[in-house]
Amino acid sequence: MAQKKAQERIAILGDIHANLEAFQAVLAAAKERGVTQYVCIGDLVGYNANPKECLDMLRALKPIGVVMGNHDEYVGANHDLSGFNPVAQLAVKWTRERLSMDDRKWLTSLPYQKEIFRFGTGMPPFCIVHGTLDNPGMWGYIFTRLNAMASMEYQGNDNLCFCGHTHVPMYFIKDDLDTKAFYFPFEKPLKLEMNQKYLFNVGSVGQPRDGDPRAAFTIYIPDDETVELIRVPYDIKKTQEKIVAAGLPPRLADRLAEGR
User: Fold this and answer.
1) What are the average pLDDT values for consecutive 10-residue runs of the chain, which has 260 residues?
2) Beta partners for 68?
3) Contact between residue 177 and residue 168 where contact means Cβ atoms under 8 Å apart
4) How many angstroms separate the CA atoms of 59 and 159, rounded?
5) In what order do the strands lie in the sheet with 215-221?
6) Closest alpha carbon to 132 in 94, 174, 162
7) Helix (H) or strand (E) holding 58
8) pLDDT value, residue 121
9) What angle, rounded to 10 degrees, do the helices at 51-60 and 101-109 form?
10) Looking at residue 242, what is its pLDDT?
11) Quick one: pLDDT at residue 120?
12) Full-model pTM
């Protein structure tokens, strides 16, 4: 008798931002939930005090897809930082000094967007991007229905896309009539329907900004066509102490407890 194929479970991670304690907690939660593959929608570095450790941990997962975030690009390259606020500028400069040139080259080698095939499901690929699909290298934010509509026009035949950048878990549904925006409910799997397009912001592992300080990530199960937001508590105090000890701006430590 043939054995039943194990169900594929894909963890979609994003906005890790060098927060080692949050990343470790998320990986433990993913393992408990039987995750089989990993995807990252960008911003692995920036803000927090463990960029090298988080970069190495992500690469060790052998993710099936990774795209570049704006902090990844600005840490990896030597771009002018005038578009960043002063706190983010300091964090980028600090992070550049703590990564090797090979690490920085890897960050800048990442694509802005990527399609990932759902083998054996009969479904089209799903796509990942850090900001928006309409102009991914300009780092636009998707906060509103209109932002989402512009990006979703570029999904093509991909009925499903995952993004980040705002650090606020939300999702958008587009059908023939309209595009609607929703807050992403916590630990309530959402069943994807045929003939609709979906855009999910997967939340932030390392610096949540929706008022919930717990780390957030998303699990996608292609066989069931379900998407679920997971929240994970972690040792925020330890992360804060590392930020202060590293000489990074204290505001970066304070905001973690606020989830803002």
Assistant:
1) 69 98 98 96 96 97 97 92 85 94 96 86 84 95 94 91 97 89 86 92 97 97 94 98 96 95
2) none
3) no
4) 27
5) 65-66, 37-40, 10-13, 215-221, 226-232, 190-191
6) 162
7) helix 51-60
8) 62
9) 60
10) 97
11) 60
12) 0.94
Whether CATH 3.60.21.10 fits 10-258: yes
- In whole angstroms, what is the distance from residue 156 CA to residue 198 CA? 12
Residue type, 50: N
Which one, of 53, 21, 27, 29, lies nearest residue 40 by Cα?
A: 27
**Angle, in degrees to the nearest 10, between helices 236-245 and 20-32:** 150
Q: Residue 40 in 3-state DSSP? A: strand
Which stretches does DSSP call E strand in the chain? 10-13, 37-40, 65-66, 113-116, 126-129, 160-163, 170-174, 179-183, 190-191, 197-201, 215-221, 226-232
Q: Comparing C-alpha atoms, which of 62, 56, 60 is closest to residue 107? A: 56
Instruction: Choose among 39, 48, 61, 38: nearest CA to 16.
Output: 48
Q: Which amino acid is at 47?
A: Y
Write down the domain spans for the chain. 10-258
Give the orientation angle of helix 20-32 with respect to helix 51-60, to 10 degrees. Answer: 20
Chain centre to alpha carbon of residue 146: 21
